[in-house]
Every structure is written in C-alpha cells, then in structure tokens.
Amino acid sequence: MNPIFCVIMGPVIQKGLYPLLNKNNVKFQSITRMATGFIMMSASMAFAAGVQKIIYDTGPCYDRPLTCPGAENGRIPNQVNVFLQTPTYIILAVAEIFSFVTLSEYTYTKAPTDMKAVVQALGQLGAAAGSAIGIAITPLAHDPSLIWMYTGLAVAMFLVAVVFWILFKKYNAIDREDK
Question: TM segments (predicted)?
C-alpha cells in the first residue's frame, strides 16, 4: 500500500500543498519539511502500535494471533478489518515525501557540481543503514511484543526528529538569506 500512496500523495503535495502554503506566505522550508516528515514517521509507528493493540484485544486469539487453537493452524487471524492499517501507510507515504524526497532535493542542490553523485550515494547509504537496522530488529517482531516494538520505533523516531531539528534548524535561516 505504501508505494501506491507515495505515487498518489506526491503530486498532491507537490502541486497542491506546497503552492497553497506559498500562496499563504507559509515558509515550509527544507529542514522543517524533513523534521515534519520524521515526526509523521513517528506518528505512523504510534498508529501501528494502536492498531496492534486493537488486534491483541480482539478474538479469537487475542495477543497470540494465528497460534491459538481457534486460529485453525494459523489460517484464521483475529477478527480485525485489514483496512484498519491503511492510515499507517498514508501517514508514512506523506512522511517519506516530506523527508526523503526533500533530503534528495536539498543535498543535490547544495552539493558542488563534481560531488553531486557522491552526495546522492551517501544519501542512499543512509537508506541502506536504515534497512540494516530494520533487519537487525526483526527478531523483536513477534507476538505479543509488537505493540512495544512499534512504540519503541515511534519514540526513537520522535527523538531523532527533535535532535535533527535542534542540530539543523539554523539552515532554514541560511537558506532564507541565500534567496
């Protein structure tokens, strides 16, 4: 679902939200967009934790979906509508557009001409590091601890957003001066 919402929300944000903000003289600069994206990623993980809580509060297996006798050998999950998780993917798609797309644009425009490819490669290295962290925490992804895993991710991402904002907010002012 995430790629679908990225494709849908990209033009909506680019052609709708950003021009609307500019028209109303709202300065939604690069560093602010990235920090907003990080906070939205945190919110998407918090929402996922809430959805997981709903799953664990619903039968037949409660906090052990697919493993209780009522699951009929793992074929019948808890009775929760799968579309309850849709907002997680929408929030995450918007967050990715605010953060990753903006990061690519920002680094490309700020890099010296002969360093643009290197800077973009370093950005991809960061994405690879994120994937490696995802693989590393995979052992934590099991019932009944999924609520805590999602909560931990939400808290960690929120802290990253705060630290990022503190360290880099000065670049919004520098960019305003350059224009």
Answer: 37-56, 89-109, 121-141, 147-168
